[in-house]
Task: structure prediction
Amino acid sequence: MKTILNVIWLILCGFWMFLGYMLAGLLLCITIIGIPFGLAAFRIAVYALWPFGYTVVERRDAGAPSFIGNVLWLILAGWWLALGHIFTGIALCITIIGIPLGIANFKLIPVSLLPLGKEIVSTDRPFASR
Result:
């Protein structure tokens, strides 16, 4: 079932969200200071391309640097990416078939706003990284 949802997701919104994250990652990697943020954007881009079967878990070893980085991320790229998820989520929820995809878009909003200190893992092993 997750493969079918991933293929539908890819066609309807996954590819466009992937491109948005890749663009944000490329823009953030222009400066040396932005490279960690760009790498986070690339990591989330893959998750936004194929989200079903994966989940986001908090990293216990993330501390103050992740908090400061998340504040900078929120200002630089987080709001724009979250707005993309909100708009595509609302558009997908208009149809009955699109409701699970819209809900998945809404679940991506927290990681698009505050990605540092989080890890993307398979739903088969959500506690493997802890």
